[in-house]
Structure formats: structure tokens, C-alpha cells
Amino acid sequence: MPKIIEIKGFTFHYAGSPRPALTDVNLSIDDGEIAIIAGPSGCGKSTLLRSINGLIPHMYSGTYIGEVYINNLKVSEHTISEIAKHVGYVFQNPENQIFMFSVERDIAFGLENLGLPREEIKKRVDWAIDLLGIREIMHRAPHEISDGQKQRVAIAGVLAMKPKILILDEPTSLLDPLSALDLITTVKHLHDTLKLTVIVVEHRLDLLVSIADRLIVMEDGKIISNNEPREVLKDDRLLTVGVGVPSIVRLRHLLKDACIFKHLPLTPSEFVEQINVAQR
Amino acid sequence: MYWVANAFIFRRGDSPIHILDPRIKLLISIELFALSLISSTLIHIGISLAAIFTIAALAKILKRVYRTLMFSAGFSVLIFVINFLVGYSIITSFVLAVRFVAIVGSTSLFFLTTSPDELEYVLRWFKVPQDVVFAFVTAVRFVPVLMLDAIQIMDAQKSRGLELEKGNFINRIRKLAPILIPLVVTAVIRSSELAEAMEARAYGAVKKPTSLYTLTLKKRDKLVGIASIMLFTTLLLYFLNLTG
Ligand SMILES: Nc1ncnc2c1ncn2[C@@H]1O[C@H](COP(=O)(O)OP(=O)(O)O)[C@@H](O)[C@H]1O
Ligand SMILES: [Mg+2]
To answer: pLDDT tens-digit profile of B163-182?
Structure first.
């Protein structure tokens, strides 16, 4: 499998900050994976994402060691706008990434900036609008749509630039539970239909563990775990790191000696299924 | 200053005026502005006001324009009194006062019928630099957002016991600090996040960004434009007394 993201010995130190935000990070992600990044606040999750789309080192001043490769491109040697064609970055607060007066115009924003011809822009905006199912709101102003809809508009805006990698920084943190579930379902759907590689920073692991291929846990600027979610969650030390371990997994850890479980259940339905199997 | 804001806040409409090309709306507004400015007799100013109200009626915004004009009437009373005291005749002072109302009216017509979106296109059409246009767009786009922020901060501070409505003038000004400081901090955070998001969407990647839409004059725009220029020229000549 080709590695679509390759981070080698990457250390980053924000200018003026007392300690590095990332220390010797090594990470490879395969094409088409869904990866979750979890960890307590301030552990460097956003910093890692910024290093992937080039905001670091191009926009943030600081010192770095090591290198990040996207599609075999050295991030430090390409402009952010070039990398934007490979990596779509959806930020935490949807409000602050919608610029224009209408949804449709906002989705066109990145394409206009790239200087694409009008016909191409039209085609892609149309495509992205249908992809995210936001045709009814395409002429609305940002203040006339809900937070969940704003998040969809933001995703449409980056996907219109046709990236192969979609990264989302705590995309559900400002959403109610139902919109959050809705959003994650949408992300999964986009991953499947567009064959995207998806990286999500998320605290609410219960929404994501069952669809993710990889769970990366960070602490203090370092990656402390990086494996399949089931493997990572087997480690009960995670319960104290400040990661939103799903309740079902916590429950399994509490039931330490009940050895009815063949493997770690990640969702309530897996839990019930294994109990049923054990009872038979 | 609320009335000023209100006078210039666009509400969506579908009148025969709203659907015109924004450049034509600007043209009409400028023509009315010029006519108001050179009105020097009661008849002139009467004609100018009638024209403004006709357009307002067509745009179905008579009420809003009327309200704006009533508010600006306060200033015009002042203008009347000053001019009269300075030694102008009652009629001249009156014309000058009403002229101010007409000038405000003609300007607000444009802003009341033109969406920020259209305004942006007009700026681009005038070849205003991209950065300036974008600064304008984000400023207008984030006015309602910051207003909500301010309301939230005020509520939060009130619930902690800040009493905004009490005390003398100086005290009240001082009490604004707990509102303004968090508001400024929020605005700075918002703008730095905005800057990140702009970069991630390739802002400034090429010198000349393209555009999903550009302004094109339709047949009705051309007709209205030509008609307005003819009417304007006629009235101009009449106002300047050049018709012989
Ligand atoms: N722009 C910045 N300048 C200086 N330090 C920063 C900046 N952004 C983040 N940091 C610091 O870097 C560390 C990691 O931050 P961040 O990547 O935002 O963490 P997370 O997203 O996991 O909450 C924190 O200690 C934070 O204070
Ligand atoms: Mg973060």
C-alpha cells in the first residue's frame, strides 16, 4: 500500500512558546484509511493537522526538525495553496471558515482563488452541493443556516477543491448529539464514495471507533499509541489519559475478570452480541 | 446611531428595482443625489423628492425610506435654524434643510435595494483590489456574528452581577470594559481562525482570482439605464436653467 501521509521525526516549536508542541512524531497513513487522533486538550492534535496541510511551517512561525510528506510532496517545499489541492482542512468552528454572503459563493471561494475557469467552478460547486445534500440552502446567507449545515458547507467548500485527504479538527464539538452523529455518517459516506483518506481529531470516540481503521493517541506532543482502535483500547491506562474512551469499552475494563469476551467490544451492539454468544 | 445602521441595512426584496443590475441602481442613486445637491428652489427640491419617493415606492421600501427621512429630519431642523440665523431667507433655509433629507434619501435607496453580495460585485467591477474587497466582505459578513458575541458577553457579565443600566455617565462608560475586552479578544480569535481558513482555501494563490458570477447587463438594465440618463439630463438642464 502506498503511504499517502508520511511524517518522519517531526518536531515543531511555536515561536515564543516555552516547549515544543510536537516532539519527534513519526506517522504513516495508508491511502483510504480513516484515522482518529485523540488526546487531552493542548497535546498537539491541531498542531499535527497544521503540519499536514502546510499551515506549519508556512503560516506559523517557529522552528522544526524532520519532514512531512503528502502524496510524496515535501510539505515544507510547497505552498499552502498547492497542498490545498491534496488536503482539505475542515476547522473546528464552522462559523470562522465561511467567508462569503451565500453558501454557493462560499463553496466557490477556494476555486476562485485557484483561478479556475468559470465553467469548471460551476461544475464543481454543483457537484459539492449535491454531495453534501445542501441544495435547498445554497442561496442562503451564513447567518440563516444551522451549525450542522455550516459544517456541511465547510466540508463542501474544501471537497470542491478535490483533495484526496480530508482532515477535520473536532468537527462535532459545537454540534448537538444528533447533528454530530449525522456529520460522522456523512464523513463515512464521503470516505466510501470518494475513496478519501480521512483524519479526524475527535474526543467522542464512541461515534467513530467502529468505522475507524486507526486510532492515534497523543499526549504532550508525542504519539503514545497508534494502531487499530480495538488494539489501542485494550490498554486500560488510556482511561486516565483524558481520551473520551467509549463507555462500552470502560465497562469491559471494569468487568476485568468476566472472561466472556473473545475480543474487545467497541459498540453496545458488539457487547450484546458477545454476551449472547457466551450464553449459548 | 442605530438609525444610520438601519437606513443602510439591506433586506431581501424582489421588486422591479431590486432585480436591476447593481450598477444601474448605483447610477440612479447618483443621479438622484446630484439632482438633490443642485436643487435650489422649492420646485426643484419637490421634484427631487418626488423622484426619490417614486423609486422607493417601486422598490416597495417606502416605509423604510420614510422612516429614515424622518430620523434625518432632526438634522435638517438644525440646518434650517443655522442657515436662518446666519441670514438666509426662510425659503432658502427651508430648501437647504430639505435638500439634506433628499441627499440622505437618495443614498439610502442604493443601500436598501442592493445586497452586500451585489455591492461586492460592484467593487470588483470598479477594479478595487482583491484584498480590499475581501476585507469589505468579511467585515459585513461578521457584523451579525460579532453582534451576537456582544449580546452573549453582555448576558454573561450581567449574570455575574454587572449592572449596565445603573450609575452616572462616567460609571456606565467604565462598565463597558468588561464587555469590550472579551469582545475584542473574541474578534481577534475569530480573525486568526479566519486567516488560517483563508490560507487553507488557497487565498492569494493566483494574482487574478476568477469568479463564479460576474455582472452582465440585461436588456431591462440597459433600458432603465438609458431612460434614467435621459430623464436626469433633462432635469439637470432645467434645474441649471439652461433650457433657455
Ligand atoms: N499559535 C500558537 N502559538 C504558540 N503556542 C501554541 C499555538 N497554538 C498552540 N500552541 C501550543 O501548542 C500546544 C499544542 O496545541 P494544540 O495543537 O492546539 O493542541 P490540541 O489541538 O491538542 O488542543 C499547546 O501547548 C498550545 O498552547
Ligand atoms: Mg485543537
So the answer is: 877 778 888 788 888 889 99
Tell me if B26 sits within 8 A of B79, measured CB to CB: no
DSSP state of A238: G
**Would you say A11 and A65 are in contact if contact means Cβ atoms under 8 Å apart?**
yes
Rounding to the nearest 10 degrees, give the CA dihedral for residues B38, B40, B41, B45. Answer: 40
Angle CA A128–B125–A157, to nearest 5: 15
Q: Taking the CB of residue A44, how many other CB atoms lie within 10 A of it?
A: 23
Residues B67, B69: Cα–Cα separation, whole Å: 5
3-class SS letters over A14-25: ECCCCCCCEEEE
Q: What burial letters (b/e) apply to A249-280, b meaning 16+ CB within 10 Å?
A: beebbeeeeeeeeeebbbeeebbeebeeeeee
pTM of this prediction exceeds 0.90: no
CA–CA distance, B83 with A166 (Å, rounded to integer): 67
Judge whether B131 is closer than 8 Å to chain A, CB to CB: no
pLDDT at B3 over 50: no
**CB of B194 less than 8 A from some CB of A:** yes
Helices (H), A78-143: 80-83, 103-113, 118-131
Which residues 88-127 of chain A have a CB within 8 Å of chain B? Answer: 88-89, 91, 93, 95-102, 104-105, 108-118, 121-122, 125
Least confident of A120-124, A269-273, B178-182: A269-273
Structural contact between residues A85 and A165, judged by C-beta atoms closer than 8 angstroms: no
ipTM > 0.85 for the complex: yes
Helix (H) or strand (E) run with residue B23 in it: helix B22-38
Q: A159 alpha carbon to ligand 1 midpoint, in Å? A: 26
The C-alpha of B214 sits at a distance from chain A's nearest C-alpha, in angstroms, of 10
Q: Indicate yes or no: CB of A59 within 8 angstroms of CB of B196.
A: yes
Give the number of C-alpha atoms closer than 13 A to the C-alpha of residue A24, restricted to the C-beta side: 1
- Once rounded to an integer, what is the mean pLDDT over residues B136-158? 87
Q: Shortest CA distance to A29 belongs to which of A9, A47, A10, A52?
A: A52
Nearest CA in chain B to A126: B212
Look at residue B7 and tell me whether its pLDDT is greater than 60.
Answer: no
| β A73-74/A62-70 pair status | antiparallel
Q: Which residue has the cell 460592484?
A: B122
Beta bridge partners of A67: A8
Average pLDDT of chain A, as a whole number: 91
Contact B138 A99 (CB under 8 A): yes
pLDDT recorded at residue A203:
81
How is residue B83 annotated by DSSP? H
Rounded CA gap, A231 and A263, in Å?
Answer: 10
The domain segmentation of chain B, as residue ranges, is 14-114+214-244, 115-205
Cα A38–A39–A44 angle (5° rounding)?
100
* Grid coordinates of A148: 450542522
With a 6 Å cutoff on the Cβ, whether A68 touches ligand 1 is: no
B118 vs A71: CA distance, rounded Å: 40
